[in-house]
Write a structure and sequence with these properties.
By secondary structure, the chain is an alpha+beta fold. Helix content is about 25%, strand content about 25%. The chain has a domain of about 60 residues: SH3 type barrels. It has two helices and seven strands, in the order ααβββββββ. It is rod-shaped, with a radius of gyration of 34 Å.
Length: about 160
């Protein structure tokens, strides 16, 4: 009997000491270690991508003034917009843009324009530009149609 109770007492003492030792090591990690982010290895491609996350626009760029983009004052003019549907139901948009009164050229999202401007997005009635980190809009000019009643002579 003494042998079994001695073994149980020895096991209980061991478990108490082991638990206190684990608790102490966890406490040291939690409260004594300064909370610093782990160093990133510059040669690791994943680490470089993670480091670049704060500079990226994960959810796109926010428009200013409740979703409205200011009109651009650059010497650019939209002369036409073409939207086509691909076989996979994605749209492929192109915009005809005239620079400083020159003949129009075809651009798509991601293309670079003069003055350090990039085509950010093409909508059905405007081209959104990225100019120095700001979004600006070039609208497609539309002429108002004026209908006149047909004269009796034309019939």
């Amino acid at each position: 009997m003494v042998g079994i109770s001695g073994a149980l007492a020895l096991t209980a003492c061991f478990l108490i000491v082991y638990s206190l030792w684990r608790w102490h090591s966890d406490w040291v990690i939690a409260y004594k270690t300064p909370m610093a982010p782990p160093a990133l290895n510059a040669t690791d491609g994943t680490a470089m991508m993670i480091a670049a996350i704060p500079d990226d626009h994960l959810f796109g760029k926010a428009f200013s003034n409740n979703g409205e983009v200011p009109i651009s004052d650059l010497q650019l003019r939209v002369t036409g917009i073409v939207k086509t549907m691909n076989e996979d139901n994605s749209t492929d948009s192109k915009a005809f843009i005239s620079i400083s009164g020159q003949p129009s050229k075809v651009y798509q999202a991601g293309d670079s324009l003069p003055y350090g401007v990039k085509v950010y997005e093409i909508t059905p009635d405007a081209v959104i530009l990225e100019n120095g980190g700001r979004l600006e809009k070039l609208t497609l000019p539309r002429e108002k149609l004026q209908f006149q009643p047909r004269s009796e002579e034309a019939i």
